[in-house]
Amino acid sequence: MDEAKEYANQWDVSARFFYEQGYYSWMAQQIEQMHTVVEVGCGTGYSTLALVENGHNVIAIEKNHNCIVKAKQLLTERGITDDRVVFIEGDIAEDAFRNGLAAEYEFNAVLCWNVGSYWNKNMIEYYLPYMLQYGLNRWQIAQNPESSYAELILWETCRLAQAKGVAVHIVDRGAETLNEQNDPYYKMLKDEFGYKKIEYANHSALSISKGGRMLSTKGVVNKDELLDIILVSILMR
Ligand SMILES: C[S@@+](CC[C@H](N)C(=O)[O-])C[C@H]1O[C@@H](n2cnc3c(N)ncnc32)[C@H](O)[C@@H]1O
User: Fold this and answer.
1) Can you tell me the distance from the alpha carbon of 68 to that of 90, in angstroms, rounded to the nearest whole number?
2) d(CA 17, CA 7)
3) Which of 66, 85, 140, 209 sits 20 to 30 Å CA-CA off 219?
4) What is the pLDDT of residue 178?
């Protein structure tokens, strides 16, 4: 099976679990007042479904064709076939694609939820110039390509939000709670993109590793079936 298809099948298991546990509803509740959102990397659609159920309209962006096919099928099965969701296949790191979104659509926030765990080593050649442009050096990228890529995608998310002057909502899976005191990274993004406020929320959760999309920390794959994690919500506006 090709890697993109295998990824979609594995992520589908992890995401369905997140949905059934109500974690996506919690994420959507953090952005209650934002009506139309761009979702960067909608995966197989469980997060999109929770957003619609929370009253949002969603412009769902995804670069993996297999994921977007599954996402469309899920929303159709759940009876959501109207214009509350627009699916667009594309790569958020591509300037022309990102600029096209900003020019063509109106939205109140850009979301990037759970971007980690997507990386595979075949992506390095293609994305290296993008990561260098973002500002990482070759040593940093070689040390941890997966988190370098995740940082790149969060940065591209902020660039899209900045182009429209709207909020950014990030959800990450971590081992510890995050707050203003122990966060150097998102505060840097806030300053770089000129946001006035940054708000944190944390939620204890479980995440499937073995049996779904395997999680890794600093390149070490975790073979446990379920892991204790903290879902960290960061809202910048
Ligand atoms: C771990 S999944 C998370 C999906 C969804 N946000 C959720 O929380 O269930 C990350 C998704 O981002 C997509 N993705 C990764 N890089 C991307 C890019 N450059 N442009 C668009 N989508 C991307 C992947 O294909 C994958 O489906």
Assistant:
1) 10
2) 16
3) 66
4) 97
Q: Is 92 in the pocket of ligand 1 (CB under 6 A)?
A: yes
Residue 234 CB contacts under 8 Å (≥ 6 apart), including other chains: 168, 169, 170, 171, 172, 178, 183, 186, 198, 199, 200
| Residue 115 beta carbon below 6 angstroms from any ligand 1 atom | yes
State the pairing for strand pair 198-208/226-236: antiparallel
pLDDT (mean) for 178-207? 96
91 lines ligand 1 (CB under 6 A): yes
Residue 209 CA, ligand 1 centroid: distance in Å: 17
Tell me which residue range forms the domain holding 8.
3-236
**Relative to the CA of 64, which ligand 1 atom is closest?**
25
Neighbours of 24 (CB within 10 A): 24
Residue 77 CB-half CA count within 13 A: 10
Domain count, the chain: 1
What's the pLDDT tens digit per position in 43-56? 999 999 999 999 99
CATH of the domain at 204: 3.40.50.150
pLDDT in tens, 63-83: 999 999 999 999 999 999 999
